[in-house]
Write a structure and sequence with these properties.
Blueprint: H1 13-16, E1 44-49, E2 61-67, E3 74-75, E4 80-85, E5 95-98, E6 102-103, E7 108-115, E8 128-129, E9 139-144, H2 155-159, E10 164-170, E11 190-193, H3 203-206, E12 207-210, H4 239-243, E13 255-267, E14 272-277, E15 290-296, E16 307-317, E17 328-340, E18 349-350, E19 367-368, H5 380-386, E20 391-401, E21 408-412, E22 437-442, E23 457-469, E24 473-478, E25 483-485, E26 502-512, H6 518-531, E27 537-543, H7 558-570, E28 577-579, E29 597-602, E30 608-609, E31 623-624, E32 631-632, E33 637-638, E34 653-659, E35 662-670, E36 684-685, H8 692-712, E37 718-723, H9 731-736, E38 743-744, E39 757-759, E40 762-764, E41 767-771, E42 780-784, E43 801-805
Parallel strand pairs: 7-8, 15-17, 18-20, 22-24, 26-27, 35-37
Antiparallel strand pairs: 1-2, 1-11, 2-7, 3-6, 4-5, 4-9, 9-10, 11-12, 13-14, 13-16, 14-15, 16-17, 19-36, 20-21, 20-23, 21-22, 23-24, 23-25, 26-43, 27-29, 28-29, 30-34, 31-32, 33-34, 34-35, 37-41, 38-41, 39-40, 42-43
Length: 807
């Protein structure tokens, strides 16, 4: 499967660096035992700092910062913040600071507390003030509906007080939410909630220590607003001058003073920054009026609608330079002055079938397109580049890739591309990249991002600044997302077929190992039993060894397969037997330590396996005999495993089966991945697909083996199936099918049904079932069973397939 590359600009950066690559199920936040207040939809305690004025501190005051992750203003009149020492005595009392006013949607609210004797920097203008002297290292802060002092002094007692809206214990505080207090507070460090403002009722998980970053309701982080030494007058250079009429800024490397703009979006997570746009556009459609201002680890002290002046260096940032990504023109090391607030955001550019060209990118014969003048009326990539950083909008659009745990989904803004039978966009050739595909990423609260499947629609308007990421090119950093209108997509169930038919399937189970949750095993098993109707033979890909990604030399997968077979039985399926060949440790690619391999499951009540000793990780299988006596030299065995084509890749597993006393040769495949290929959106056009070279060699090795088998017995029934990591029109599949030794069954489906995987909004083929000439079209019924790739809730990222073979 394609391997995404981490970009600092991705909405999902923080999540992606915290989760294993194999995780694909949607995140579910589960309250921990002993949690206090239920996760609150309104205001939360975002940051607590008790070191103000202490030795080594920069800030003069302690502070408590609140934040509103919701879409509605929250009134604070009648509320209070309260403080209890970390180890309260019988005489300890809660200190109280009353609040008033409100917190705007997505806004902050700063409560200044007692000053110390040291420090050199004032807080920005506080929204409320008290005289609580917070400890720098341990204590408990509560947001309370009311101004009467709390009386609870244990976690259990405080959990029973309905007035507590949110609570943060830090250091070694006795009273805290969840398993432990937030760690790490000191004279120079606050504890702050993650940028997503997630409240899982576990202080240790939700808050981290870091440099204090007070922000008030105006978005100010320094006294008087803006940033230190920010510009006071607009300069002569505008954003469209910086962006220029090609992909690279004509002013790259220069520091520009006083660039004016209106803030259109703010990124407060990961590598932080904001987008601004000039409301006074020029007449050149090739020059963008928007730009990203990169503030690094500093939360931008601005909000949408602020009119700002920025002095900064012009830079070109490549999210994935080794993969050929486009660059992002941005302003770095900025000094920002907020001139005014509450200004209207420039009207969005509507992206639809009338504005997005059908042609995707100019052709530079594999060279860079960066120096070419933009032609936004001719190429979609040029249009998107000409709008980089500007506020854009799509309206009432179909979802072409389901939302994921990183709060992303894909839509088709053109809605004129080749459609799948179930609402996706089908990828039918290298020259048909489907120009209307756009990623939508959440720029707001993660909880507000919709859960959608392929075939659903985002009604109304979805919009925000147009960003660029290495996860798929141009993306709408959505400040607003439309409502989901369900398309009613259902998981498919294949036909049961006749008892006389041999049913053979393939399923990539996505790095399955015994440490995976029982839920994953149960979902995969239900797919085998209910949706695939328990094939007689099932080839599995991505079965990991018995301790998964632990890299300790383990290669056996007995525990993994046994757990899966038991899950299938529990789901009502047959008692499968199985065969495989353990790989050499670390030689077959995939997740380090995982030792993925292919495995045959088979139902011994329906089909028998012909065991022939001699197969091994490095022992090549061969063909002996002729005609009806044709056989393998080993079963199970591996095809040409010492061929350099299989370096760091899975070797084909072949097994000899018997059905109704007739032999059937089945090859389970998992060709090398597309890692290292330049993307469809690459700055090099046409993009280089370097991984195809190895897959073509792998296809040639397997095709030669099948040809030898058919030379011995032209009537041999051969089924080659699995995850080939390539398209039906690719060189690898053309090689596999050359000379007619194998026939790719996906080509016998209508074009609208040719897909088993969805990537970057394209429904495409990666998995195949190929058959030898003896299995004529009238003797086979082939089905791609769509149960995963189009759904937000997936057991795997691949759809399984099955072929029914008539006697």
């Amino acid at each position: 499967m394609p391997s995404p590359i981490v970009s600092r600009r991705s909405h999902s950066l923080l999540l992606r660096t915290a989760l294993p690559a194999a995780v694909t199920a949607s995140l579910v936040l589960v309250p921990l035992p002993g949690a206090l207040a239920a996760p609150f939809a309104g205001v939360v305690i975002a940051e607590v700092y008790g070191g103000g004025g202490n030795s080594g501190a920069t800030l003069k005051n302690d502070f408590i910062e609140l934040a509103n992750p919701s879409a509605a203003a929250f009134g604070l009149t009648g509320y209070s913040v309260q403080y209890l020492p970390g180890s309260p005595s019988a005489a300890s009392k809660w200190g109280v600071t009353p609040l008033n006013g409100s917190v705007a949607p997505g806004g902050r609210y700063l409560v200044a507390e007692a000053p110390g004797a040291g420090g050199t920097v004032d807080l920005p203008a506080a929204d409320a003030a008290g005289n609580l002297a917070l400890s720098a290292t341990t204590g408990t802060i509560a947001l309370v509906n009311g101004t009467d002092a709390l009386t609870c002094k244990t976690a259990a007692d405080c959990a029973a007080d309905p007035r507590i809206v949110d609570l943060v214990g830090f250091g070694t505080a006795v009273v805290h939410e969840g398993s432990a207090s937030a760690p790490g507070a000191s004279n120079s460090a606050s504890v702050a909630r993650a940028a997503s403002l997630a409240d899982t009722d576990d202080n240790a998980a939700d808050l981290q220590a870091g440099a204090p970053t007070p922000v008030n309701s105006k978005g100010e982080s320094t006294p008087g607003g803006g940033s230190d030494n920010g510009p006071t007058e607009p300069g002569t250079v505008r954003i469209h001058d910086i962006q220029g009429a090609s992909r690279l800024s004509p002013l790259a490397g220069k520091t520009i003073a006083g660039v004016p703009g209106t803030v259109t979006g703010v990124r407060t997570y990961g590598s932080k920054g904001f987008w601004m746009q000039d409301p006074n556009a020029d007449v050149d459609p090739a020059t963008s009026e928007g730009v990203f201002v990169f503030t690094g680890s500093t939360v931008p002290a601005v909000k949408v609608g602020d009119s700002v002046l920025v002095t900064a260096k012009v830079s070109e940032y490549y999210p994935n330079s080794s993969g050929g990504s486009q660059s992002v023109t941005e302003l770095t090391n900025p000094k920002v002055t907020v001139v005014s607030s509450g200004n209207p955001v420039p009207a969005p550019v509507v992206l639809d079938g009338s504005s997005i060209p059908a042609a995707y990118a100019p052709d530079a014969a594999g060279g860079s397109i960066e120096s070419l003048p933009l032609r936004p009326g001719t190429y979609a990539l040029d249009l998107f580049e000409s709008l980089e950083g500007m506020d854009v909008e799509v309206r009432d659009v179909p979802v072409t890739q389901a939302s994921n745990e990183y709060h992303e989904l894909w839509v088709d803004a053109r809605e004129q591309d080749p459609r799948s039978s179930r609402g996706g966009v089908v990828y039918l050739g290298y020259d048909q990249p489907n120009s209307g595909r756009l990623m939508v990423q959440s720029l707001g609260a993660a909880a507000d991002f919709p859960v959608a499947d392929v075939g659903d629609r985002l009604t109304g308007t979805t919009g925000g600044p147009l960003d660029y990421t290495s996860f798929g090119g141009y993306a709408v950093a959505a400040t607003r997302v439309g409502a989901v209108q369900s398309g009613g997509l259902q998981r498919e169930v294949t036909e049961s077929g006749l008892p006389s038919e041999l049913k053979i399937g393939t399923y990539n189970v996505e790095n399955l190992d015994p440490g995976d949750p029982d839920e994953k095993f149960a979902k995969l098993a239900a797919g085998v039993v209910t949706n695939l109707r328990s094939p007689d033979i099932l080839a599995l890909e991505e079965i990991q060894d018995d301790n998964g990604p632990v890299n300790d030399g383990t290669v056996s997968s007995d525990a993994t397969v046994t757990k899966f077979v038991e899950a299938i039985k529990a789901a009502g399926g047959p008692a499968y037997d199985w065969r495989s060949v353990d790989p050499v440790d670390g030689k077959d690619g995939g997740e380090p330590g995982g030792n993925i391999r292919q495995v045959f499951l088979f139902n011994p009540a329906r089909v028998s396996f012909t065991d022939i000793p001699g197969g091994g990780a490095t022992t090549p299988v061969d063909v002996v005999g002729t005609g009806n006596h044709t056989s393998l030299t080993a079963s199970p065995g591996r095809i040409d495993p010492l061929n350099e084509a299989w370096n760091s890749s899975r070797k084909p597993l072949i097994g000899q089966f018997s059905f109704h006393n007739k032999p059937v040769f089945v090859i389970a495949n998992h060709f090398n991945s597309k890692g290292g290929d330049q993307g469809l959106d690459s700055r090099f056009q046409a993009p280089t697909r370097s991984s195809e070279v190895q897959r073509a060699k792998q296809a040639a090795a397997e095709q030669a083996f099948v040809a030898k088998l058919l030379a011995a017995d032209p009537r041999a029934r051969v089924v080659s199936l699995g995850d080939f990591n390539d398209y039906q029109f690719s060189p690898a599949l053309q090689t596999l099918t050359q000379d007619g030794v194998l026939r790719d069954l996906v080509n016998e489906l209508p074009e609208s049904e040719r897909y088993s995987y969805v990537y970057q909004g394209n429904s495409q083929v990666l998995d195949h079932i190929l058959v030898s000439p003896a299995l004529k079209p009238q003797h086979v019924q082939y089905d791609v069973v769509h149960i995963n790739s189009e759904f937000a809730d997936q057991a795997s990222d691949h759809d399984p397939q099955v072929v029914r073979i008539k006697p």
